[in-house]
Amino acid sequence: MNASMRTATFYGAEDIRLEELTRPEPEPGKVLVKVTSTGICTFERRIFSGAQKHIPMPVIAGHEVAGRVVAAPADTGLTEGDKVALDLVYRCGRCYYCVRGMDNQCVRLFKEGLTWEGRHLMGGGFGEYVSVDPAKVFKVDESVPDHIAALAEPVGCVLHSFGKTTVGLGDTVAVIGAGTMGSLHVVLAKLQGCKVLVSDPDAERRAFAVERLGATAAVDPTTHDPVAAAKELTAGRGVNAVFVTAGVGAAAEQAIEMTGKYGSVVLYAASYPPAKVAVDWNRIHYNEIRIDGTESRTRDDVRRAVQLLPGIDLEPLVSRRIGLDDLPTELALGVPRGATQRVVVTMA
Q1: For the chain, where do the domains classified as CATH 3.90.180.10 start and end?
Q2: How many CB atoms lie within 10 A of CB 79?
Q3: Cβ within 8 Å of residue 13, ≥6 positions away
Q4: pLDDT digits (tens, 9 = 90+) for 104-163
Q5: Choice among 89-98, 209-218, 261-270 with the minimum mean pLDDT
Q6: Nearest Cα to 62, choosing from 18, 9, 136?
Q7: CATH ID of 4-156+297-346, from 3.90.180.10, 3.90.550.10, 1.10.10.200, 3.40.50.170
Q8: Which of the four, 61, 310, 324, 331, has the lowest number of CB atoms within 10 Å?
């Protein structure tokens, strides 16, 4: 095996450097994985732009990761060559939330974690190899392409989001915002037999949601009333759930108006700068509307996502694949617009 590996390391805003570091070797109790594909999340784009605060530098990011097992302890059920998806969020395993199974809310996130040769690891998928705990490794069916296996983490996040609702077969949901995470909500809602209304001001995204993902209808909130569209799709009742994947305060207020009795509003996206939301107390009270937040995913959400991958078509959500050398140029483009969805880094 080669003694080095290539990485892309963030040193600050708009400062990402391609480096060659010592490669991890198999460690007792750890799984050594050769990274094959890493999705570029908005989180990494915000690190590059400087909008993501409180990130220790230098840092090797990349947390939407698929790979192949190089070496693993005998008692893990993993063998050399296994295709895997990785859960690379930091979970201390000992705080109040971790021990209750709410490990997506680990209090030590960003406060402690792994390092490699003086670089902090926030994922580490922008490097060619990672050494991780066996609990973070999930075997993926060989029928799933590597660039799709890398989407296990965002699919897990969306499963966590759906867990905040009681959505089921025959229901109707609305998705506000048709970026990658909004689009994944459309895919999973369709998988559950739901009608789906998409609200997004971008014409390309609306067309993508309907024509490529099978959304029932799409509306431009700048020219048409999403509340009226929600009621039209549900015989005047309002939808069973609204997922707000656009971090705009007005979208959250609109979501409450779109929701019917016993419905749920899930605030999926963060808002920068933080937004205050005005709510109609009586509407929530009399209609028993539930408002919930969702953040990241639990380890079990990732497990469930991996099981789903062979049965869902996520190919439309990978807009392009690039090499590690192309990552700095890609990040400089900013947050994708229009029909562009996930960009995935393919390792050589």
Answers
A1: 4-156+297-346
A2: 11
A3: 48, 49, 50
A4: 999 987 666 788 888 989 899 999 999 999 999 999 999 999 999 999 999 999 999 999
A5: 89-98
A6: 9
A7: 3.90.180.10
A8: 310
